[in-house]
Amino acid sequence: MRTPGQKYDCAALFATMRLQGRKQQWLASETGFTRSYLSKLVSGERAPNPIFRARASKALGLPESVLFLPINSDDSDKISDEQAAD
């Protein structure tokens, strides 16, 4: 379930597409979302909404929990702190 402001890592989504030989245009067609929307997911400019997550999961044949990993803002802060210490 999505919490307000929840962000997702979409790397697994796009890695799966590469492994399956799929292009963004294919996923756009399968999900009913635009290539522009997908580009924003790739760049991290946008978080995938629940409808997109469900449709992409169905199209690629994998559960949402595999394709979209929630990003914990507390973890992001810890990584930033660790990187700052290096």
What would you note in describing this structure?
The protein is built from 6 helices and 2 strands. It has 86 residues and is mainly alpha-helical. The protein has one domain: lambda repressor-like DNA-binding domains (434 Repressor (Amino-terminal Domain)), CATH 1.10.260. The longest helix is centred in the C-terminal third of the chain and has 13 residues. It is globular. The N and C termini lie far apart (35 Å).
Assign the CATH architecture.
Orthogonal Bundle
* Overall body shape: globular
Structure annotation, total helices: 6
- Major beta-sheet overview: 2 strands, antiparallel
- Cα distance, first to last residue? 35 Å
**CATH superfamily grouping:** lambda repressor-like DNA-binding domains
- Roughly what fraction of the amino acids lie in strands? 5-15%
Instruction: Kindly state the number of beta strands.
Output: 2
Helicity range: 55-70%
Q: Compute the number of structural domains.
A: 1
The pLDDT mean sits at 84
Structural class: mainly alpha
Give the CATH topology. 434 Repressor (Amino-terminal Domain)
Can you identify the CATH class? Mainly Alpha
Radius of gyration: 14 Å
Strand order of the largest sheet: 1-2
Summarize the structure.
The chain is mostly helical and 86 residues long.
Descriptive labels:
single chain, 86 residues, mainly alpha, 434 Repressor (Amino-terminal Domain), two-stranded antiparallel ribbon, 6 helices, 2 strands, disordered C terminus
